[in-house]
Amino acid sequence: MVGWTRKGTVKGRGARTPFAAREAPSTVTPAAEGDGRKEIIRLEGVSKVYRMGDVEVQALKGVDLTVYQGEFIVILGPSGSGKTTLLNLLGGMDTITSGRMVVNGWDISRLTVQELTEYRRTQIGFVFQFFNLIPTLTALENVELALELVDGDHRGKAREALEAVGLAHRADHFPNQLSGGEQQRVAIARAICKNPPILLCDEPTGELDYETGKKVLALMQEINEKMGQTIILVTHNSAISEISHRTVYLHSGRLAKVVKTEVRKRAEELEW
Ligand SMILES: Nc1ncnc2c1ncn2[C@@H]1O[C@H](COP(=O)(O)OP(=O)(O)OP(=O)(O)O)[C@@H](O)[C@H]1O
Ligand SMILES: [Mg+2]
């Protein structure tokens, strides 16, 4: 990865969290479960109920999970098992019904709306299945937009992020002038440009062909290893679990099992 350094780390600012560890991680540590490494995400009995009139959908049912700094976690599960719900809760896009969720020192079950906005802005980068780029903005402008409200040289940071995903030469192209894989790389640049400690990815390769999908996964693996970002990646593709440190299996809103990957593969070696 060219030109990317672990700088510009953003600090959390919420007032109501009882935890001391409010600063984003400053060192990169190799990931393995436990080993005294810093816990970055803790879910305790997390449930989510959607109510629509008289109908209740229990999307998550008492999920307990601890994730350590620098881990690459893959979440697998059938359609409707609660994967996106879990990601949206972690991303502060939705609120839990019961339980407790602490992310990098932010007790997000207790945040005010304002604090939640600050949390999303400083702690989370999101990568979606359908890229979600703004069609009337260039690649560079799409990345720059994510830096709104951040101090400093937006254009420089955006260029640096595009360079990190190998797309500096496409900075002035509009999304419809880019391939699917390139659009997803712009979306990844947008997610990492603020250097958030956590990246949440919902089916990031769902719309991509085999080779392009593998390239995007290789980029995620590189980001995880070189920048030390904790990555939570949701997918239907069980082969992707082979690049994870651990895979979380959801079933009907419950955490069915968590499996450690004994021999991790490089993304380039994956086959499906
Ligand atoms: N906003 C919502 N309102 C009501 N029900 C919802 C809402 N979002 C999700 N659900 C329900 O919660 C359950 C879990 O949905 P979720 O989107 O988390 O599943 P998923 O595992 O991501 O599925 P997929 O693999 O199809 O994307 C489903 O039964 C779904 O219908
Ligand atoms: Mg989903």
Could you characterize the architecture of this molecule?
The chain has one domain (39-269): P-loop containing nucleotide triphosphate hydrolases (Rossmann fold, 3-Layer(aba) Sandwich). Helix content is 25%, strand content 25%. The two termini are 26 Å apart. It is built from six helices and ten strands; from the N terminus they run E-E-E-H-E-E-H-E-H-H-H-E-H-E-E-E. Strand 9 (246-251) and strand 10 (254-260) form a beta hairpin. Strands 6-7-8-3-9-10 form a six-stranded mixed beta sheet, with helices on both faces. The protein has 272 residues and is of the alpha/beta class. Mean pLDDT is 88; it is low at 1-30. The radius of gyration is 18 Å and the shape is globular. Adenosine-5'-triphosphate binds next to strand 1, strand 2 and helix 1. Adenosine-5'-triphosphate binds at residues 50, 52, 57, 59, 77, 79-85.
SSE blueprint:
Layout: E1 39-52, E2 55-68, E3 72-76, H1 83-90, E4 98-103, E5 106-107, H2 113-123, E6 124-127, H3 139-145, H4 154-164, H5 180-192, E7 198-202, H6 210-227, E8 230-234, E9 246-251, E10 254-260
Parallel strand pairs: 3-8, 3-9, 6-7, 7-8
Antiparallel strand pairs: 1-2, 1-4, 4-5, 9-10
The structure holds adenosine-5'-triphosphate (ATP) and magnesium ion (MG).
Adenosine-5'-triphosphate binds next to β1, β2 and α1.
Provide keyphrases for this structure.
alpha/beta; 6-stranded mixed beta sheet; disordered N terminus; binds adenosine-5'-triphosphate; binds magnesium ion
